[in-house]
Amino acid sequence: MYAKVIVDVPAKQTNRAFDYFVPEAMRSWVAIGSRVGVPFGPRKVQGFVIDLHTRSDLDPSKVKPISEVMDLYPPLTPDLVQLAGWISRTYLCHEITALQAMIPGALKAKYERHVKAADDSLGGNGESGQFAMLLPEQREMIRYVRDKGSVQLESLLEKFGSDAALIKQLMAEGLLYEVQMIKDRMAAKKVLTVFPADNAELLKEAESQLPARAAKQKEVLRYLADHPAPIKLTELLHELGISAGTVKSLADKGLLTIKEVEVFRDPYAKRSFAKTRPLPLMPEQQQVYGRISRAVAAREHRVFLLHGVTGSGKTEVYLQSIQTCLDQGREAIVLVPEISLTPQMVERFKGRFGDQVAVLHSRLSHGERYDEWRKIMLRQVSVVIGARSAIFAPFTKIGLIIIDEEHESSYKQEESPKYHARDVAVARASQHDAVVVLGSATPSLESMHGTLAVSAAARRAATGGMPGGAPAITEAGAAAAADTALNERVPFELLTMHNRVEGRPLPPVHIIDMREELRTGNRSMFSRALYKAIEERLHKKEQTVLLLNRRGYSTFVMCRTCGYVAQCPHCDISLTFHQSSRAIRCHYCGYAERELTVCPSCGSEHIRHFGTGTQRVEEELGKLFPGIRVIRMDVDTTTEKGSHEKWLTMFRNRQADVLLGTQMVAKGLDFPHVTLVGALAADTVLNLPDFRAAERTFQLLTQVAGRAGRHELPGEVFVQTYAPEHYSIISASRHDYRSFIDKEMTLRKLHQYPPFHRLILITLSHEQIPLLMRTAESMAVRLKELAKESGLSQVEILGPVASPIARIKDRYRFQCMIKYRGEASISGLVKRAVASFEDVERQHKMTISVDVDPQVLM
Ligand code: ADP
Ligand code: ZN
Ligand code: ZN
Questions:
Q1: Model-level pTM?
Q2: Dihedral (Cα; 622, 626, 627, 630), 10-degree rounding
Q3: CATH domain 504-555+611-745 topology
Q4: Is the CB of 702 inside a 6 Å radius of any atom of ligand 1?
Q5: What residue ranges carry the coiled-coil annotation (predicted)?
Q6: Is 602 within any annotated ligand binding site?
Q7: Which of 208, 283, 373, 460 is the most buried (most CB within 10 A)?
Q8: Is the CB of 451 under 6 A from ligand 1?
Q9: Ligand 3 mean position, distance from CA 20 (Å)
Q10: Distance from the CA of 804 to the center of ligand 2, in angstroms?
């Protein structure tokens, strides 16, 4: 048997499967998706088995055997292996990078150098010969290594201090040799557990026979006779106030056994979740649920785009749809943006499905995440709720995949593999004949485009197979055949819920023209209307949410005398002031310096640290409303583990009047006493050089407005802006998604932007501008040549131009943009173009990165 293995060496030359022989003894363990250790050149590396064959095209004597199998069960399923291939071809990344993204960090290989002693290192008969000639210390080393079997090189060096040379000599003489070991970064957690002999009578009899001075042992036996279930050793010791020795001596007598048992680190172990029952659905919910559950029951691959206004009860629809899926014996994946994955959110799922739910997000420790993932592997759960990468949960019978807040840009991973979870979800669901539900109050233009009433076949013919923005890139050969099924996209079906639950009204939204405020002499960051509204809430003991876009207010350091702005010496970006550490910092490379007291340029003392915008707002609130209780949530106040949750709980318990924050406060929160929402600077995102600026503004305002009046108390929203006539702001204030989407679609079409055209961004970076410019220039030329050769006359190659952030970590950046209509052959073209710069990349340490369907154009 032969295995095709993708090795853990992310490089172009190794981005293909290598053949290995599967030794007889391993055959029952090796499967598609297995993690194996294989010899690779002089080293041993980790790899993934992606296929098994009975023969190899290579000369059998040249095929090396697999040296070890890393897991009892393969950590990846065959469908995930296939998906990894698709991801690597669609997003143009190494296949190993895609495979690695699918397993928890704990399983990423850690390579350790160990030494072993040669079999004859002690000499022929006992410790003689060559051995006898060694220094006493060297003999000591060999004995030590032999005793241990193998010793990590570093720890041997440490133990024998200064004697690296002596070890080297032993290696040169072949008495010690180096081996490479592949270790997991994290192991399953095990605890010592006491298993009493399962015959209670026997325990009682033994107890009566023990002498009276063995009182402690007698007590243990009596306890175990009454409590026959296995018990953690520590618990038993604590319970009876005894020592481990007592238990040990009983084990020696054969009355109990002590074994190591795997346990799960459960981050939610200490919390109990009140069981919830399905709510009777509102008519719109019922309709939507009906459509989804019928598709799930029919085991059809369908994609639903659920447009439901804020507070329309989407979560209840998700929960009941999941129940339908579980009733069929199938599994469900729920994706939620990292930032909305609050305990409140988890509670809604755990409350309904209890222990059947695993939770995956980045605030868990490595160990906790690994254990949640193992619960999925071991089929102990059937629902997983998590952030982006939970789409790779190793389930085998997926019936339903839900993506909440599907428009969120955080579903796109910004580092390689630069995949979009929405598109991966659709591909994965098609493998399982599963249903996808994309839910949002403000669906993305890409997803809306996917619902346009064009037949799937017609769209495929026209665009090479893409639905709204979903990738459809294939290559020639077998891989392309494998991908065809995954690229076959069904049109999305639009489901709508126009009304809030129980007919609660959407809150009225007032647009406030801040230019007018200024004209009438109000220089404060609060308009008079918003000021009055906050005052009123304080009187009525109701709560207020205030939103300030992160990019909204200046956080930089500026000299008011000469206009100097503190810049990172390594990146073309201004430094940000952090109040808590009184330091100024670069968000891209981490460079930091002490706050400035005089201007380094003109020596003036009129240098101002603007602080994060939210800090200024907090100060001003304190001045305007003495005694006001404000909770501020931004990057500075939420870095500590658990702080995010802490603030939200405090606010829920009404320990504060105002929740003030960045985007964090706009997403998914549901507080009954919030009756006022204020967006302090609604238009700041509008000014970013990004074609999605209007869409992001509309989404953010709709989301934050949706926080008001979700329960019995009616709500009210104030939007402060300098661009009150902008269509994104007007549409958001009228809760009019339709008019926004019509206008925005028209503009995107006119300017040939996604979802009508698609983009691939190629970014090159290097320390020296001339070489960088030359290379970027020839990259563009090369792309144009190839496009012409392939008859892709419609494809536009834009650039090169300097990237909006022109330098990061002392490396300059240039970009080329490819604008196309979804032609399938484009990926092969880009791959070939990039491949022709391999030498430059290697020789000159040029970095070339490719981003398919980029979300961030900086
Ligand atoms: P969305 O996610 O669409 O913004 P939620 O799912 O958070 O809305 O629901 C809003 C509120 O309505 C929640 O408090 C939820 O418990 C409640 N709710 C949802 N469905 C029903 C129903 N059928 N009957 C009563 N209350 C409901
Ligand atoms: Zn100055
Ligand atoms: Zn920097």
A1: 0.81
A2: -20
A3: Rossmann fold (3.40.50)
A4: no
A5: none
A6: yes
A7: 373
A8: no
A9: 45
A10: 26
